[in-house]
Amino acid sequence: MRCRSTLLLLPMLLAGCAHFGAPPMPDPGLYGETYTKGSHGDVRTLIVVLNGDGSPGVRTDERRFAKTASDTIPESAVVALLRPGYADGEGHVSPGERGADIGDNYTSEQLEAVATAVSAYRHRYPKANVVLVGDSGGAAIAANLAGIRPDLVDGIVLVGCPCTLPEWRAYMEQRKPAIAWEQPVASLDPLKTAGGIAPGLRAAVIVGAEDEVTPVRFSRSYAEALTLRGIATDYRILPGRGHDLLNDPEVIAATSRLAASLPEEL
Fold first, then answer.
1. Which of 19, 170, 174, 203 sits between 20 and 30 A of 2, alpha carbons compared?
2. Average pLDDT over residues 103-125
């Protein structure tokens, strides 16, 4: 089953899209599509997928991941959530400023918008653990959110993460010098916000060995920082894979393992 929610939909439409008996859902503020096979009371894992940077034709399809995860992970609801200012392939758009896709939109304002949306979905599925799955720039958002709002997040799956932000932007400036990577940004660095992550959080950090957009070193440093803090971290480098990794079976498998490892919410 696929459900859509956005700031522009009337509350009645949202209620009609929800499962019968589900608690009223606050306005998430951002556009999302929910995939689930069960009723809201059966959901034990709420997975929120955050899209990568770039246009729909460039980035990996987050909706495909959401559908596959819903089909694969028992008692789950999976939301493909569009970050502020981003659109999907059908023309749906989340309100807000997208930025220039130069690592400039991992800001406190962007994080607050995503946190508001996650809180709304958590209200709908109050018995569920919350797992954020972030692709590329969405991984930076997921990591930062886990660090500054640990109350919202039980697990994170980071795919191709620019998790050491200043170093990654310096690398991209060398790789694409025609783009204004040298401009200062207000984005939060996941490596610095990692200190706020709750000790009980579970993490999976996955990167392709041949990733030229977010090479292995930017994920490794973050995974090492989590491990040093005692965070249970499943760190994997996938041989022969590049940056287009979100819909790889290994990512679905890692998400499934993480979801199964979380204690049941009371």
1. 203
2. 97
